[in-house]
Amino acid sequence: MTAVVVDKVTKVFNQGRADEVTALSEVELTVAGGEFVSLIGPSGCGKSTLLRLIADLIEPTTGTVTVAGKNAGQARRDQDYGIAFQQAGLFEWRTVLRNVELPLELRGLSRAGRRARAEEMLALVGLAEFAGHYPAQLSGGMQQRVAIARALAVQPPLLLMDEPFGALDEMTRERLQSELLGICAQTGTSTVFVTHSISEAVFLSDRVVVMSARPGRITAAIDVDLPARDDAARQSDRYFGYVTSVRQELRGVPSQRADAR
Ligand SMILES: Nc1ncnc2c1ncn2[C@@H]1O[C@H](COP(=O)(O)OP(=O)(O)O)[C@@H](O)[C@H]1O
Ligand SMILES: [Mg+2]
Questions:
Q1: Best probe residue, ligand 1, of 9, 49, 209 (max atoms within 8 Å of C-beta)
Q2: What residues form the membrane-spanning segments (predicted)?
Q3: How would you list the strands of the sheet with 190-194, edge to edge?
Q4: How far apart are CA 79 and CA 157, in angstroms?
Q5: 118 to each of 132, 156, 162, 189, how far by Cα in Å?
Q6: Phi first, then psi: what are they for 18, rounded to 5°?
C-alpha cells in the first residue's frame, strides 16, 4: 500500500497577519510502501513543516495528506507511524526504559512483553546499561537514541524522522544509519527522513527529495540505486556521483545524471 500521499499541500502560517509566511506551496509527494525517502534543503524550506503535516501535528491550509490510505488524523489515532524528532521529547519523570515502553503501553502490550521489547530496542541503540537512568542524566545524543528506540519499539509501518541523528558523533551516526536500514528492510517500514546531510540522505534513501525555500517547494527528486548499503558503498564512485547530483540540485544546478528527475 502507498504509505504517504501529500496532494497539492500548501501551508501558510499566521494567515492574514503581517507575519504571514507560506512555508510550503503546492507540495506533491508520494511514498511507496517500504520506500525510504529523505527530505533535504536549506534551513527554513519547510522540511519540518512537511513532516509535521504528515504526522497530523498541524493541518494543511489547502490540499490533503493521506497516510496508510486514511486521512492523516485517522492514521495518527491508529498509531500508524512512529516519530523521532530533533528534540528527543522524552518524559523527564520516566526512566529511559519506561520512555521506550510508553508507545507499547498505549498499544496495550503486557508488562512483560513491553519490557522485553523495550530492552531489545535499547540494546539496539547501545543504551542497555542506561535503562534505569532518567533523561536528564544522559547526554543530548543519548537522549536522541532513546527517542529513536521509542519510535522503533512498536515496529510502525511508517517512520517519520526529523534530523534524528543530528546531535550524534559520526561513528554513532553511521552505526545507527546502518541499524535503521536493517530494521526498515526487515520490517518493510516506510520512512520519511529529514536531514541536512547530503551524504546521509544518499546513504539511506531510495529517493532524495530536494526542497527550496520561500516558499518551500520540491525542486527535484533523485532516485538512488546502490547495489548495497555498507561501508564499501560509502566509498564507491556511484555513491559520490549521487552526492554530487544532490549537491548540484541544492545549488539550483540541474543534475546531469540520466536517473535524476
Ligand atoms: N508554527 C509556526 N508559526 C509560524 N511560522 C512557522 C511555524 N513553523 C514554521 N514556520 C516557518 O515556516 C518556514 C519553514 O519552517 P520549517 O518547516 O521549520 O523549516 P525547516 O525544517 O526546513 O528548517 C520557516 O520560515 C519558519 O519560520
Ligand atoms: Mg526543521
A1: 49
A2: none
A3: 81-84, 158-162, 190-194, 36-40, 207-212, 217-223
A4: 9
A5: 12, 14, 22, 18
A6: -60, -30
CA-based nearest residue to 10, from 29, 32, 26, 30:
26
pLDDT in tens for each of the 261 residues of the chain? 799 999 999 999 999 999 999 999 999 999 999 999 999 999 999 999 999 999 999 999 999 999 999 999 999 888 888 888 777 789 999 999 999 999 899 888 999 999 999 999 999 888 999 999 999 999 888 898 899 899 888 888 899 999 988 878 888 889 889 888 988 887 788 999 999 899 999 999 999 999 998 889 999 999 999 999 999 999 999 999 999 999 999 998 766 554 544
Q: Which residues line ligand 1 (CB under 6 A)?
A: 13-14, 21, 23, 41, 43-49
